[in-house]
Amino acid sequence: MKAGNAILSSYGTTIFEVMSRLSEEHGAINLGQGFPDERGPADVLEAASKALLEGWNQYPSMMGTPELRQALAAHARRFYGLDVDWKTEVMVTSGATEALTACLLGLINPGDEVVLFQPMYDSYLPIVRLAGGVPRFVNLTAPDWSFTRADLDAAFSDKTKLVLINDPLNPAAKVYDRAELDLLAEYVKRFDAYVVCDEVYEHIVFDGRPHIPLMTLPGMRERCLKIGSAGKTFSLTGWKVGYVTAAPQLLQPVAKAHQFLTFTTPPNLQAAVAYGLNKDDAYFSGLASAMQAKRDRLAAGLEAAGLEVLPSAGTYFVVADIRAFGFDGDDQAFCRWLVKEAGVTAIPVSAFYVENAPATCIRFCFSKKDEVLDAAADRLKRRFGRG
Ligand code: PMP
Ligand code: GLN
To answer: Is the confidence at residue 386, as pLDDT, over 90?
Structure first.
């Protein structure tokens, strides 16, 4: 048999799938893969169901339904003061994953350099490589996961076409502050680059911190492609409805990729997401405060079990440092051991690096029912002799 694509064949199955299957095999509590275990907002589900039964179920416009694009423009104005033309500056995709892929395939020419921050979400690098992009890594390390001017000096060059940034950052649970974003914006402008901003956790930010889209900084409106996900904003990760907001000249090449990737996204889900994005501010602040309470609950449980918990400023995740256990093995080995021996599933943070990975950090997902978080903490306490 002739070989498949060499780049894709070089990757194994994603860590999320691997750990979820291992978790099932061992009857473990799955705090690995990031998804909420509740039903999601009933009114948004109802809007989808109504649209399915009573609405249009044929191909919608490839850019997204007018209704959803208008809701996205209104959302950008309400939360970020951005003036977005719904006709030319927003596009609906089948998940943020497709949005990311369409941005990378639509903008990269072979040989273009792409600046990536490690840890990075697992789909970024394979697509950069498929597009012929040359990755340049900036390494972020615990506990502050920050970067310096020297890091950017080393990563940027005249060949830099694109930067890919995830804020809030999965798995580190970091939210970039204004000074960090200003520094990045300075380099993006100096090297005449564009930025794909993966902001799927834009509404899951804690402790009253603001989420600052890079696109809102001076001179960045025309350089950024901002990506969001209804899966995260409405706790319905299986829906796979994403969106890209960008200036027309940046969005056009991305739409060219989208038309050959998925072309469009289920119209009933688009109708429900449009409804959801128009919900009042209390929905969005309620999502952040509910997740913050879950963060606090799980962090307390992990600490009581003897794990060193790093700060979590946003996302569904909290990272723990396992050094204190003196475990003989790296984070991957520790996670495999934890599933089998403690019945709790986590994700090794090294899976988000291709080089210079830390070997001592593991990620737990707290977007779960309280009783699930408590049961996981109890199992860990018992296994580590603290229960
Ligand atoms: N980016 C990041 C950082 C994520 O955590 C996720 C969640 N799976 C995605 C993109 C993909 O989002 P979606 O499910 O909308 O494709
Ligand atoms: N974004 C999710 C996570 O980080 C997983 C999505 C997936 O399984 N591909 O856990």
So the answer is: no
